[in-house]
Amino acid sequence: MAARRVDPERVAWKREQITVEAGRLFSTQGYERTSVADIARAVGVRQASIFYYFTDKAALFRAIFERDLPVAEALIARHADAEEPVPAILDVLSELAKDAADPGASGMVVELLRRVEHDPALIAVVMRTAEVLTGGLAALIARGISDGDIDAALDPVETATWLQAIVDATYLNARPGYSPLPELQRTVLGYLTPRTQQGAEPHD
Question: Does domain 8-55 have CATH number 3.40.50.1000?
């Protein structure tokens, strides 16, 4: 009897379907209160099928954030050679914060903060994505400083880290249906703009 052939595209599609449904449940019910059986029912498959695609519930939770890495890499690559660094930085941050208006956004961030204490592999996933974003933003910030469009007193790497913290805050303070992008951009511009352009003189 011939071995059953595995269709990689179908496997990837099913993994994505399971990951999306799991993310929805984790964000609304919490990680601990969401069972694999709950996820299987939401997807419309048997519980055993979930374990065909993921080793356990922790691996499924990690998969939600593993999707962020290729997205971050593509986002940074798309803006790396932008002629004007400041608009490019705003575009990157706006893209990162665009899902903050989603009803489950804050819930997922809370669950992530709870889970990182128990899952070193999850920490590694999140840190790798953060490193990609930090490196890309820092390069744009350095160019903006060189061009005179960003405050020269800022350290590119530290500033890139702070900008990501501002994005994180949009999720922690998210309200369903409310877009934080105008406030995000206003805050970031105020942080990056050279003090002389803000009309403030340096203090001794």
Answer: no
